[in-house]
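Notebook p. 47: complex prediction with magnesium ion.
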Amino acid sequence: MNEKLTESVIKSQRAPLLQISDLTIDFNTPTGWIRCLHGVGFEVYPGEILGLVGESGCGKSITSMAVMKLLDPRARIGGNVRYKNQDLLTLDENGLTKMRGRDIAMIFQDPVSSLNPVHTIGRQVVESIIYNSAIPFLNNKVMGKKKTEMVKKHQRVTVQAARIEAERLLNRVGIPETKQCLKQYPHELSGGMNQRVMIAMALAGRPQLLIADEPTTALDVTIQAQILELIRSLRNEMEMSIILITHDLSVVAETCDSMAVMYCGLIIEKGTVEGIFADPHHPYTRGLLASLPRIDRQIDMLLPVEGSVPAPHEMPRGCAFEPRCNVALNVCKIRQPAPTTESHGRSISCFNPQYGGFQV
Amino acid sequence: MSIRFFIRKIFRALLTICLIVTFIFVALRLSGDSALLIFGPDADSESLEILREAWGLNKPIWQQYVIYISNVFHGDLGKSYLDGRDAVEVVAERIPKTLSLMWVTAAVTLLIGIPAGIQSALHHNTKRDRVTMTLAVMGLSIPNFFLGVLLILLFSVTWRVLPSAGSDSWKHYIMPVITMATAEAAVFARFTRSAMLEILNQPYIRTAIAKGVPWKKVVREHALPNAAIPIVTIAGFFIGSLIVGGVITENVFAWPGVGRLLVTAVANRDLAVVQVTILLIAVSMVTANLIVDIAYGWLDPRVRDLRSEEL
Ligand SMILES: Nc1ncnc2c1ncn2[C@@H]1O[C@H](COP(=O)(O)OP(=O)(O)OP(=O)(O)O)[C@@H](O)[C@H]1O
Ligand code: SF4
Ligand SMILES: [Mg+2]
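Predicted complex, structure tokens below:
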């Protein structure tokens, strides 16, 4: 535990791989523009797994989709997303296509519907390899351009190479019958197998950052553990950073190095997993952790704290958590707390943070 | 796909055809005395009797039906009352004209309707989308015969630039094709648009984008082929409505095809010809739907597997 802690302290002295600041997202709804993200900021350091936790609807998915620019084009995104000092929000279509899959890859909650039902697994993995490989693959089918005989011959070779690579990737993510799997369709595989395929596709471009949006929520418990184990081992092997979005605090405790807690489109507390689990400072985080019976037991974060989340269009003027907070001050009603940074990269947005006296 | 699935589908198709043929047989015979209608109200009873005798119309209806069915199975579909030729021959010589009109209409429909729908979906909620959909609603709400008559009034009567009847030159095709294709293209544009929008909202499209597949390729490799699956399913309806629209249009423009034959044959109580025509229509529609059904399973591996599992 201590070793892990110092490790992440060392990491935090390096330059962040991904740096998000003041990220805001507004959606155009029939009743006008609605702000769903109110200035989110966090960093992901090389090689770390960051857990992004929060109740349903707090904005975890839209945050990650904003990083990949996967949101509906009608959504308005503000703020800054920097990947290795490159501003992702101002990238053009071409730059985005290059970035996606190669620098940052993503896997999703429902692996079965996230794969094209009418393409074989092989075709989809090969596609990922062809679009993300450094070698200029020139598959006729995929690239769709006129080719000379020589180039055609070359294509067949490279498609062959892509198939071999696909098999290697499927093998790496723990799929036993890779040859057969390549020929199968997503509906012929289990949810866990499909998620492994999704991970294999994500690895094709050797990305430095993997965003996993609730990758195990749709799977049953034993499979969940296997997939998380796979993700952890890949991080070590490929020196990848991971943003793991989840509802499940026990997943965070087991898998992540650092964590960021979201509430109503804001990050209210972030820091190392050890630090926060040992002594959460924000009243909301304290509520969440207090309701966690034991670290090794899975709990669902639905309503862990009394009261309910305000809807995006009726956000309180002051602190978003004020209606549910039992240590609220007068100022909380009128002003929004700004994030304050403490040691070990811990940051809290609260006028009245609590210290100590917390037993897990 | 399993053999049993095929057999079941084909059996159902045959049953559908039998039901249609029976229904038409009974309806034609119950809706008036054919002999009287052919000879007119002042015919003498003796000649009426001779006619009924000659065509077997004096027998009870079930007997007529049994005879008809057994004749059908012997390849005899009856003779035209008007000129005594084989009804099949009378209908068959009209088929090429009808088919050529249908081909051209189908091509125009698909070439306009599908790209318009795709463009609308890809530019969802933009001006282009709204203009296309407004045009489609307008196209849908004009009845065939009204559009046909309107075109004749404008282009044949007022401006005298296009022929209003016949089928001899390419000029004769213009108005009938516009008449039929307007509503069909509108249906296709709307359906294609909604099929595309549905597909574009699927999680696997998001996956493809996240993988770094360029948008054009996402559309071409993932969205279009998948949207084609529901579009293929309406091809059956399409052929049906081409046939129905064809009957109306052929009559508006005096197009010498099967549709016009059907209307004159009904008016003349030419029972055998009507029955052959209806049989032809039924067989084409049922076959079209059978092909669509099979193609559907072939295009979508989920359906393919479902079928071989449950049957
Ligand atoms: N296209 C959209 N238009 C309008 N509002 C949207 C849209 N997409 C998301 N939202 C809103 O943004 C907020 C955050 O959604 P998001 O999907 O990020 O939540 P989440 O934290 O991922 O929840 P879950 O745990 O259920 O996945 C929600 O309140 C949602 O209603
Ligand atoms: S800012 Fe005030 S209301 Fe908000 S969590 Fe802190 S103490 Fe509670
Ligand atoms: Mg989500």
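Notes: Residues A 60-61, 213 surround magnesium ion (ligand 3) (CB under 6 Å). The first strand of chain A starts at residue 18 and ends at 29.
Next step: compare against the earlier run before touching the bench.
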